[in-house]
Amino acid sequence: MGADHGDPTPLAVAAARERVKCMEALLAAGADPMACSSGRFSAMHAAAIAGSVPAMRLLLAGHPEAAIVEDGIGRIPLSHELPRHSNMSAAKCLLEEGAPPPADKALALLAKALIPLGTANSMAVQPLYAALVARQPLTAEQWAQVPSPCAGLGAALPAVLERSTAEAALLVQHLCAEERARLRAAAICLSQGRGLPALPTPLLLRVLALALAI
């Protein structure tokens, strides 16, 4: 039986079982990684449920938009991965290598993942915000949904600065104390550079951002 009868597609079955070689053969034979069985889910949804990064990367290599395909009730693959709280590398893979998800939907999923978790697990979820904002512009209202402070957010500063200094300023407001201290130290070192030519403001901001992200 095929997808028209509501059964999972062969590619979704292989992804759920983490059979990467079988997936490669099915894709080579023309299997559609975007296909969703009627009322069910796609191969990427199955890979997210399995938490299989190799299966995800195989699908994303040719079809990054598979990261945001919706199942029968409107859930993207990240919706299945985040509630597991067991494999943040899989969620990070979706955010870094797939097509960027709708910002509001991704922020809601990340916030939901934070709420029931203890401090240690919350720290594991927080770096996912950096993966999101590095590729997805946020409005001021959306930035208000980002935890403050947010661990690991400084890694996204160079990418955010490339698209908007105003948005980079919003990011800085959400940095943890350690990252703020590193940024301040870099700024002091640059401002006290005796005998060095003054740097243009855009270049100065870029240097500061890179100093924070290293």
Summarize the structure.
This protein has 214 residues and is mainly alpha-helical.
Break the fold down into its secondary structure elements and pairings:
Blueprint: H1 10-16, H2 20-28, H3 43-50, H4 53-62, H5 77-81, H6 88-97, H7 103-114, H8 119-125, H9 127-133, H10 140-143, H11 157-163, H12 165-172, H13 177-191, H14 201-213
Helix pairs in contact: 1-2, 1-3, 3-4, 4-6, 11-12, 11-14, 13-14
Structure description:
The chain is mainly α and 214 residues long. 57% of the residues lie in helices and 0% in strands. It has 14 helices and no strands. Helix 3 packs antiparallel against helix 4 (53-62).
Element-by-element helix/strand order: HHHHHHHHHHHHHH
Structure class: mainly alpha
Number of helices: 14
Overall pLDDT score: 83
Specify the helix fraction band: 55-70%
Characterize the overall form.
elongated
Beta-strand content: under 5%
Residue windows where pLDDT falls under 50 for at least 5 positions: 1-5
Report the count of strand segments.
Answer: 0
- Spatial separation of the terminal alpha carbons: 52 Å
Main beta sheet strand tally, sense and closure: none
Radius of gyration: 20 Å
